[in-house]
Amino acid sequence: MTTHTNTPPKQADDGPPKGVWTHHIAGRYRAIQVRQLAMAWWCYRESHISFRQLRVYMAAHEMAERRRYTKPGGRTKASYSLDELKAIVGGRGSESADAALNADIRRLARLGMVSISGHAIGFAEAIDDIELEDVSGFHAMMAKLPHPDRTVPVPRRVLRATAAGFTRGMTAVVLAMLIRSLFWHRDRGAFRVDGRTKREWIADVFGVSLRSVTEGRARLIGLGWLVPRETSQFLLNRYGAHDQINTEWSTAVADSGAGEKRDAEQGGSARLSGVFQGESASPLNRSLPQEGNHINNRTSAHPAEHGWAGPSGVSLRSTLGSRKERPPARGSGGASGSPNIRDIRSADLSDTDRLLELHRQACKLGLAHASEHGRMTFFSLAERARSRGKRAGALFYWLIREQKTAFITLSDEDEAARRLREHLNTGGSLLRPSSPEPAASPPPFSQDEHIVVACLRIACQRGLDPFHVARRARGWTRDEWDEARHAHLQAQHARWRGETKDAE
Asked: What's the order of all strands across the beta sheet hosting 190-192?
């Protein structure tokens, strides 16, 4: 794992630099201009595009970036399909998703924001490339942005998360923090990942309410993408909150206890109508069934064969029972006692063993299937609820009861597969959940790589040549250092190729 330091590799002439620095962004990044990010949000704010079309725009950047890591040459061409877009945005298994996404693609192409064809993707680089008459509001927005001509190294994991469906306030905070707090410094060879931002500035520039900004920032902190840093009250009042972007973030970061900090209210009852609180209620899923005895085409035309529907004439709601009739609370932490499908807590979704027990109970009630596909679907819905829902337990209950499998995105499935794979690799059982201490994951580096990384970190902190650090600490010669450094770079390249294959 990359270590964040408070100084970059080498110091500038104007004295020691400040801030938080890193050499690596996990999962790689997509270079997007500030004006492109601002242009996409401004078009949404002025109702030229819908929020889902904004998500499609983000997904198009992810699709284009994937092709940069494929092997070039020959007669091969990049191939872009609607299925790939649906995997990122959501809507697999919904017949209305094809028509809705095709309409979104045509709308973005008519505006000139992005054109997606079978073998190419093109993006507008300036507001003049967009077919709009009055763009004075965009120029007013750009006048309020710092460094409007620079390029932002947007992490690909963040691209996929925003495309999958953050809330409006969370998306505004994400874009604001990327513009103000994530910089690549070529002269130092490192990224600066912290900055100060006032919530009033975000509300003014992005056209959202202060409450949306406050809630969006709080939820991003809960997910682990933002890390608040200590600051004095004077600086807080003058410059705003000091936050650090976690460049190692993934949906797995929130597993480390974030759910345990939420109170027992997050296990409350789910609303049965309207847009669920905290979930991205995409119009892609507007044709999905609303009752438990129906099924979408993601599973089968015969729901009883897959265990998703109850017996004929029996309502799944009556079979499962009302959440208002749940047993007494198991404590404010939500992690004590055995998990109960009628009283799902956010802590249950973060613990693989407890989630497997919930899956076993759901299979007995006919809400899930005991096959590998059914288990993967169950875990994917749990990931969707845990990473997107303000009340994760209630959202998960609603998702499995209403069988909203079309909400599942590629990132949800990837994280679900990772959790199941790690559970098996650490000796866990998928049939009889238990709660042993998980075994420590193997170290990502060899012993020589650890030495190389440590020397680079110390040299970064003190502004020294890393070879001199290695010679003083280990007695290495220049040839030994060059060989170890080359081996480390080759291993890093192999890991990056592996991450790219997993992402694709």
From this structure: 21-22, 190-192, 183-185
Residues 293 and 373 in one domain: yes
Report the first-to-last Cα separation within the chain, whole angstroms: 22
Same domain, 37 and 88: yes
Q: Transcribe 418-468 into DSSP letters.
A: HHHHHHHHTT--SSS---PPPPPPPPSS-HHHHHHHHHHHHHHHHT--HHH
In a domain, 334, yes or no: yes
If phi > 0 it is left, if psi is from -120 to 50 it is alpha, else beta; for residue 208 that is beta
Identity at 428, one-letter amino acid code: G
Which token pair is 50?
């819908």
User: What are the φ/ψ torsions at residue 113 (nearest 5 degrees)?
Assistant: -70, -50
Say how far apart CA 282 and CA 54 lie, in whole Å. 12
User: CA-to-CA distance for 310 and 312, rounded, in angstroms?
Assistant: 7
Number of folded domains in the chain? 3
348 and 276 inside one domain: yes
State the Cα angle at 302 between 297 and 307, rounded to 5°. Answer: 100
Q: Provide the residue range defining the domain that includes 282.
A: 269-425
Residue 491: its pLDDT value, please? 79
Cα Rg of the chain (Å, integer):
24
Given 425, 456, 473, the domain boundary residue is: 425
What pLDDT digit, counting tens, does each position of 235-292 carry?
999 999 999 999 999 865 444 443 334 333 333 333 323 333 333 334 444 333 333 3
